[in-house]
Amino acid sequence: MEKLLKGKNAIVTGARKGIGYAIVESFAENGANIWACIRAEDSDFSANVAEMSKKYGVRIKPIYFDLSNEEQIKFAFKEIMQEKVPIDILVNNAGITHRALFQMTSLKTVKEIFEVDFFAPFLFTQMVVKAMLKSKVQGSIINISSTSGLDCDGGRSAYGSAKSALTCFSRVLAEELGLQGIRVNSIAPGITDTSLITLNKEQITQIVSETALKKMGTPKDIANGALFFASDLSSFITGQVLRIDGGLL
Amino acid sequence: MIQGKTAVITGCLQGIGRSTLDIFAKSGATIFACSLKKTDEYTFHLSELYQRYNSEIIPVYFDMMDNEAVKSAAREIQRHKKNIDILVNIAGMNHDAMFPMVTMTDMQDTFQVDFFAQIIFSQYIVKLMQRGGNGGSIINTSSISGLDGRAGQLSYASAKSALVAATKTMAIELGPHKIRVNAIAPGMIDTDMYQNVPSEIVSAKVQATQLKRMGKPEEVANTILFLASDLSSHITGQVIRIDGGMGA
């Protein structure tokens, strides 16, 4: 297959496992150099991406910061900027999940969820956009939201609201950055086979049976969507939300 | 991305259909290229594609105004005994008229080509997809008019809107057979459709997009390629706007 991101530089947050890791792999396979952002140093992760980097002939650099720590975000961004290469692609994937009835959800929890799922990507994107504008790239920003942010399912008063805010944020950015040629889209994964799943076996079976394709999504499925938005295949698409949910119709 | 797959594409004579034909040929698919008529330019183009990419292209000619022609075109495709993996419904027609002036004939013709014929044709082709047992991907071409409405396009917008409902319904019914069904909704794409639109209207509409430009037919074709390929294997029942951003 032709390499869809040849020579591009991408930042992926939440890269340690699940969807983020699959995005790193898919982007590397397609020729992108990557800053793979994770919370803290992890020798297994470093070894894995080093191997990946060798396999696909691209550069993958681990970057460490905690999304609930503003100082760390700023410091990490400086580290990226020191390399003086343009940033073409940003994938805001890192996030935390939460499921509890509204009456059982404390304001403290809501604030924690918004801190990581909304404020952190907001701040980080601000920095990246500044760099994108400076280097005049035809950039692509991809926010990983959730079907919970669109469908507003029970138990998701904190998480769904934060993801909904992220989706709105994406569309506002698309409007503001279109003129400069920066595209902003989001992806809303449905039930996806990662460690973030907060449902029990029966609940999973129930939701899977409600999908048209009768299957759970894989991290690779979501990564393929991110690849589409990151690549020039989607060059006339901005401000959109793509559901990758097996057809929760 | 679709190397070795077999695709049926309608509306290959020009515009988005032509670009899709080109990109699919380049990607190594076997193609049943459907169009309303045979022209010298088109026939020459097909032979050029064959020479350049060595991909098998089988031309099929039929008029979507005629249900019998749709049926015999499907039979013709069936006679080749190939498993169909991809169906891209692009052929369509547009007849502008303001609401008070819309005639029954306009509506009937538009719905015939933009809706009824699409469904009938898909019914036949889905049978061929199911025979293969490997599932498949169907891409219907709706329009932003079908989602947002547009002055002067009552018939067209309504038919394109009906196609969205059909897409979702087909996705639900065909999902268990591993057949995915999605729609695209192109916005302002630089094709013959805009040739007769006054330039000041075109530039006002371009200004209303976030990317401040018209789209190119190949940009639509690239999204079709994504939806046809296994990159989108968990995506079904969706409508993707390819409109340069319109805040919708």
Characteristic terms for this protein:
heterodimer, A: 249 residues, alpha/beta, Rossmann fold, seven-stranded parallel beta sheet, 8 helices, B: 248 residues, 7 strands, 46% helix
Your description of this structure?
The complex is a heterodimer of chains A (249) and B (248). Chain A has 8 helices and 7 strands, in the order βαβαβαβαβααβααβ. Chain A is an alpha/beta fold and 249 residues long. In chain A, β2, α2 (43-56) and β3 (60-64) form a beta-alpha-beta unit. In chain A, α1 packs across α8 and α4 (107-134) packs parallel to α6 (159-177). Chain A is globular. Chain B has one domain (6-242): 3-Layer(aba) Sandwich (Rossmann fold), CATH 3.40.50. In chain B, α4 (104-132) links the parallel β4 and β5 (136-141). By secondary structure, chain B is an alpha/beta fold. Helix content of chain B is 46%, strand content 15%. Chain B has helices spanning 15-26, 40-53, 67-79, 104-132, 144-148, 154-174, 199-207, 217-228; strands at 6-10, 30-35, 57-61, 86-89, 136-141, 179-186, 239-242. In chain B, α1 (15-26) packs across α8 (217-228), α3 runs parallel beside α4 (104-132) and α4 (104-132) runs parallel beside α6 (154-174). The A-B interface holds A 1, 171, 174-175, 177-179, 181, 183, 211-215, 217-218, 221-222, 224-225, 227-228, 232-240, 242-247, 249 and B 1, 168, 171-172, 174-176, 178, 180, 187, 209-212, 215-216, 219-220, 222-223, 225-226, 230-238, 240-248.
Summary of the model, kept short:
The complex is a heterodimer of chains A (249) and B (248). Chain A is α/β, with parallel strands linked by helices.
